[in-house]
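Ticket #4471: structure export looks truncated?
Reporter: QA, pipeline team
Priority: medium

Steps to reproduce: submit the single chain below to the structure queue and open the exported record.
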Amino acid sequence: MNSRSKAVFSNARPAGFARINRASWIDTLRVVAAVVVPTAAKGVIIRRPIMERLAQRQGLDTSAVRQMQRLVRKYGRAPLLLPIPFRPELLILDPADVSTVLHCSPQPFATATWEKRAALAHFEPKNVLISDASRRAELRPIHEHALASADRLHPSSARFKTIVDRTPGDFGRHWCRPAERTRLRSRKPGSGLFAGPYSAIARATTSL
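Actual output as written to the record:
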């Protein structure tokens, strides 16, 4: 998780964390070499098959897992600060801390990092993940409404399942077909999932 806050880099503790540990320079270099570089080489958004096969042959994923386990044994499960100059990174080692990071974004934890912008800007330039803080505050409630993130099951889950069940052949190979048939909008403007203030978004919504 990238942090843009100089306070984080100087060991100040962001709100929400009881403790933050700081990795040594040697351990920071080990994480970059064993975890960051192989992950970037395989492709963060779109996977590179050649690099994935190479990583599998060399056991790079296993090495990355072992490196993370070693950090937990050495530093504990509190977030671990990697003191990378000009771009400090915070490793989340405990699943319980994930919600804290999400609630503390986009400040001090950046969401519109250059990696995300490079990956998404060419086909989703207005995506909430690469929006600034003010635009993100406007878009995030709309996304959460569309995804029904507060519900255990999406209101349209039965319809999604029907479309998937009707997809012939291997779903993994033909997933684009049901995605094209699945919409986040009602057939009637101003009703259903995007009723009221979301009707304008509904009219502009395309396939998932």
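Status: closed, not a bug. The export was complete when the record was re-opened. Leaving a note from the reviewer for reference: Residues 164 and 170 are 10 Å apart (CA to CA).
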